[in-house]
Design brief:
The chain has two domains: 73 residues, Rossmann fold (3-Layer(aba) Sandwich); 155 residues, 3-Layer(aba) Sandwich (Rossmann fold). 42% of the residues lie in helices and 15% in strands. It contains nine helices and eight strands. The strands form two sheets. The protein has a four-stranded parallel beta sheet, with helices on both faces. Helix 5 packs parallel to helix 7 and helix 8 packs across helix 9. It is globular and about 55 Å long.
Length: 260
């Protein structure tokens, strides 16, 4: 068996993260003997920084939001000749597609566990990479029947606004308690995919996410406002007839993280 522990010795990979991508990159770098440098904004909980450091990565706190930390990572990558491995895509940068492919494992696991085709699939979104990958896979697996609904914080409706405008836009707003979803600019490749695969885009308030976390915890599902955003959206979606939720609905959601 080949030993991969030194396969990337001498290589440095850098990225910005709202938390989870940074953990994944740090873990992967350690496995293959590379160095990882992760830029986090001031709003990312320290627990994520601690987890990233536990994999041997360097953490740099930079900027007030994800976009500012990403800009810092870009500049550092260019200055040092490091490999920028972002989970975002933009004009001239498509490496984020590799990260998006990783979500397909989760999509396959979820689909194969479903005995019936869901009527609704709620997917929470930050820059859009996670829901774009999941929605693409589930469209191929389940066909056109499920309504696929994208959920964002009211303070960061970047995909909703981009879809409404017909182009990628940057939004402004306060800091959301759904930190991993609090992104103000979209991943362009993800946006293009979501425009094709998804039925609806909606937003939820921070308070809705907090209530969802409490309800889920009461049923032994421990998650964060970001992780439980899909569940929180179900109640809001019931208010809108076009979503078509009733007592016969079979709803699929994915809890994407433990509490921060």
């Amino acid at each position: 068996m080949q030993n991969w522990s030194s396969a990337l010795n001498g290589k440095t990979y850098i990225s910005a993260s709202a938390g989870n991508h940074g953990i994944s990159l740090a873990a992967g770098a350690r496995i293959f003997g590379a160095k990882a440098v992760i830029y986090l904004s001031k709003n990312v909980p320290s627990s994520f920084a601690d987890k990233i450091r536990s994999f041997g990565a360097e953490v740099v706190v930079c900027g007030n939001d994800y976009e500012e930390s990403l800009e810092g990572a870009k500049q550092e990558a260019e200055k040092n000749g490091w490999m920028l491995l972002s989970d975002v895509t933009w004009d001239g940068y498509d490496h984020g597609l590799r990260v998006m492919q990783g979500y397909l494992v989760l999509a396959d696991e979820a689909c194969t566990k479903c005995d019936e085709t869901p009527t609704h699939i709620f997917l929470q979104a930050g820059v859009g990479g996670f829901p774009a990958s999941i929605a693409t896979y589930m469209r191929k697996y389940f066909g056109n029947d499920p309504k696929i609904i994208i959920v964002e914080p009211t303070k960061a409706p970047v995909l909703l606004e981009s879809i409404n405008k017909g182009e990628a836009v940057t939004v402004t707003g306060g800091v959301s308690n759904m930190g991993r979803l609090d992104c103000k600019s979209p991943s362009t490749r993800a946006l293009s995919s979501l425009a094709i695969t998804c039925t609806n885009f909606m937003t939820i308030e921070d308070e809705d996410a907090d209530i969802a976390v409490k309800e889920l915890r009461q049923n032994d599902f421990d998650t964060s406002p970001s992780g439980g955003a899909g569940y929180a959206a179900i109640k809001e979606a019931k208010k809108y007839p076009e979503c078509g939720i009733d007592k016969n609905s079979k709803i699929l959601i994915i809890l994407t993280e433990k509490p921060a």
